[in-house]
Amino acid sequence: MRFSKILHVIPRSKVHNTFSLTRQNMSGFQAKVKAHDALDEASATGHFVRTAAGFREIISPSHAVFQPAANRYHLYVSYACPWANRCLAMLYLKGLEDVIGVTVVHPTWQKTKPANPDDKHCGWAFFDSANDQPLTTSTGHGSFAPSGCSPDPNAVHAKFIRDLYEASKDVLGKYSVPVLWDKETNQIVNNESSEIVRMFNSLDVFGGFVKGPFAHHDFYPVALRPAIDEVNQWVYESINDGVYKCGFARSQLAYDQAITDLYAGLDRVEAILAKQRYLVADGAEGRSVFTEADIRLFMTLVRFDEVYVVYFKCNVRPVASYPHIRQYMRDIYQTHRVAEIVNMEHIKTHYYTAHPLLNAYGIIPRGPNVV
Q1: E strand or H helix at 287, and its extent?
Q2: In contact, 35 and 119? CB cutoff 8 Å
Q3: Is residue 74 helix, strand or coil?
Q4: Spatial separation of the C-alpha atoms in residues 59 and 198, rounded to whole Å
Q5: Do residues 292 and 197 lie in contact, with contact meaning Cβ atoms separated by under 8 Å?
Q6: DSSP-based three-state secondary structure for 325
Q7: Cα(342)–Cα(299) distance, rounded to whole angstroms?
Q8: Where on the phi/psi map is residue 362: left (φ > 0), alpha (ψ -120 to 50), or beta?
């Protein structure tokens, strides 16, 4: 099978920043971009509008630069981030942890240009859990020293995720995780989680290195791709991104629309799971199949009652009250190595301490401890 059929790749004309705009022909380039984060992504009507990922290269045997290899690529994540965690889940499910390195950042955003008082941007920071002193919020509240974080081990020796983007000649100014990094050319390959997930899944990319019980399980099988894509689309719009549309809404209208769509999406999921184990069914075999769609949804669901109910005002109904969704979450949580990446300390610390505009003093709620 040709690799081009493995992934739905966005045309280069629609991509903000590809390899052709980075190392090959941008010598001396200095991007003049305004650093921003998700709280800045609001429309004139107060709706949250997410900025698309900017680095969209796909590792493949035929790529001119980014070809599959062991110990060449590195994944930067936060345990708090659902988008990054879907990548980490796929990496573990496919047994690639000895082939692709992983670094976890601190969950509490910090000022990324601390020496420049005019640059107000706050974002992901590297942290040595074994040696560094606890960090505060960007406004000086609290004391947070979670386990599991480590310094940047690669050539850039970044202090912040922003440093990786600037080393890669970023032109968008949003410094998000996940980041898939190439240690050979010292630049970002891809920061779009859905594409990283599919690269890790594809046997045409890292198939020579996979191991474990899901090594040869295809989470995006050809026959089911139309169904998976359809589920991904409405789950993303109503649930994955829907919780952020609720939490970052800047008008009552925007919030009311988002919360309505969110719970319509959850009701739709509950109805599907009342009939089958997973989101997508294989009609030929008469059973549902564990696919990337389940990984993508799970990462939002597992954060829902602990964070989104309170922090993002998604309080119409907790997911624990949906019997089929709750059983589905338990099922996936117990799947090979998934529980290892559900780090509620990081999750709650991030959401409740990273945005002073929403939680000025960085107070972290104690409950409900449903996970």
Answers
A1: strand 287-289
A2: yes
A3: strand
A4: 10
A5: yes
A6: helix
A7: 8
A8: left
Structure tokens at 284: 């030929």
Distance CA 238, CA 230 (A): 13
Strands 101-104 and 73-77: parallel
As a residue count, the chain comes to: 371
Q: Is 62 helix (H, G, I), strand (E, B) or coil?
A: coil
- Compute the distance between CA of residue 203 and CA of residue 218 in angstroms, rounded to an integer: 8
DSSP H helices in the chain:
82-93, 161-167, 193-201, 203-206, 225-235, 242-247, 252-273, 292-303, 309-311, 323-333, 338-341, 344-353
Q: From CA 211, how far away is CA 207, in angstroms rounded?
A: 9
Amino acid (1-letter code) at residue 140: G
Per-residue pLDDT tens over the stretch 270-293? 999 999 999 999 987 789 999 999
First to last CA, the chain: 40
Q: Residue 292: what residue type?
A: E
Element (H, E) at 264: helix 252-273
Q: What is the pLDDT of residues 287-304, one digit of tens each?
A: 999 999 999 999 999 999
Q: What confidence tens digit (pLDDT) does each residue in 103-152 have?
A: 999 999 999 999 999 999 999 999 999 999 999 999 999 999 999 999 99
Residues with catalytic function: 81, 244
